Amino acid sequence: MKINQIFLLLLFATNSFSQNFISTGQIDYEMMIYSGISYDNYTASLLFNDSFSRFNYRSKDIGDVVTENKVSNNNTSINIRKSDTTNYAIFNDLKKSALYALGGNEVIFENETKQEWELVNEEKKIGNLFCFKATCDFRGRSYTAWYATSIPIPLGPWKFKGLPGLIIELSDSKNEVIFSVKKIEIPFQSEVNGIDLKYKLISREEAKIITSAQLIKQKAKMEERAKILESKVSKGERLKINVSTPILKRGIELD
């Protein structure tokens, strides 16, 4: 019986995230993530209909970022930030409350992913939209969202949804994660692909283990390169190279 239950769960998951759909709207977002040194900018868009949504995002950076700081006459500090070249996607089966996150070679399956929003009696105007405030704590961060009830679509960027209107702006309390609407197209009809079945389906718990191992391997490789560069400086000079990784690799989610 247990084997049958597992099989049915995997079948349900596969059928959901491989589902293509015709969108009825598209929302383009500005997306910024603080990397520890500077902000990474992402191209992001939400395509949706009544049953499904897909949020795509990828970094605008095309190469590693190197920052050089002269500490003193004979000391220079160089920071190397590895660029994020992954194409990310968040696929929501809205009827079945199932979410699938694509990043790299795996698809992470989550069931019943939602935020516990607190609606706040506060409003502001963003562009020509009157927006209302909502707050929530979600996976290690405290967020503030501004949503427009004049656009009664309970969706937003990334994994955020469930408000009585489209999320126009959203940021965490430290301003490390920031989303803001750039363009709204409703109606917007387009065929949207589900997530390719070639990707491996894993749980969020499995993904944490895989990500941690990848981070350790990636950082070790970068530190090895840094040591080679440090050894090549002229005699009498000192070079210290610090290696950091993008916050998206560590996770927007902190727990």
Task: Provide structural commentary.
With 255 residues, this protein is α+β, with helices and mostly antiparallel strands. It has one domain (2-250). Helices cover 18% and strands 47% of the residues. It is built from 3 helices and 17 strands. The protein has helices spanning 2-17, 204-230, 247-250, and strands at residues 21-22, 25-34, 39-48, 52-59, 65-72, 75-81, 88-93, 98-103, 106-111, 118-126, 129-138, 141-148, 166-172, 177-185, 191-192, 200-203, 238-244. Strands 10-11-12-13-14-2-3-4-7-8-9-16 form a 12-stranded mixed beta sheet. Strands 5-6-17 form a 3-stranded mixed beta sheet. The longest helix has 27 residues, at 204-230. The protein is globular. Mean pLDDT is 82; it is low at 5-12. Residues 1-18 form the signal peptide. It comes from Flavobacterium limicola. This is GLPGLI family protein. Residues 212-239 form a coiled coil. Keywords: Coiled coil, Signal.
